Amino acid sequence: MPPKERNIAMMGYRSVGKSSLSIQFVEGQFVDSYDPTIENTFTKITRVNSTEYEVKLVDTAGQDEYSIFPAQYSMDFHGYVLVYSITSQKSFEVIQIIYEKLLDVMGKAYVPVVLVGNKTDLHQERAVSTEDGRKLAESWKAQFLETSAKQNESVADIFHLLLMQIEKENGNTKEQSSCIIS
Ligand SMILES: Nc1nc2c(ncn2[C@@H]2O[C@H](COP(=O)(O)OP(=O)(O)OP(=O)(O)O)[C@@H](O)[C@H]2O)c(=O)[nH]1
Asked: What ipTM score was computed for the predicted complex, to two decimals?
């Protein structure tokens, strides 16, 4: 069977680590420099349980509270990774605005989303509590993870959870049990 194609967009405020998470997932490395993204697309074959997926990952340009939701990201996407940095309250506020705009532009009450609080290695600079992140995700009925792109902590789990969430949305629940990522 050919892999299932899944298109996923990474969204969030500037400099929260969208590119770093994408590169860590796809290439298994962390580059400690900052180069603002315009748009990048990555492809990776990944397996969740016995199903193979071809993930097309679109790393978008950072957005702020004034950005209009880019129309090109409202079509042909199966799910969204919404990223903030645990060191930035502003990025946490912006992600809520991005989520509202996403639902609005999709005209749906539910869209497969994983909320990600990145940069957990910078715990001394933490500005957003785990509890606040979890509560926000609960209010969205979304999955929630805290990650470190730098230390490769929970990075693959983001995509694993989202792929499962997308399966559920498509009515395929058999893959909700135990999971293996490769
Ligand atoms: N300590 C630490 N730094 C990180 C982490 N993830 C990203 N960074 C750093 O944060 C800065 C911004 O990372 P990017 O991945 O470029 O962020 P982005 O969200 O893609 O930024 P835009 O392209 O502007 O939207 C870079 O200097 C990264 O090295 C992390 O988990 N821990």
From this structure: 0.99
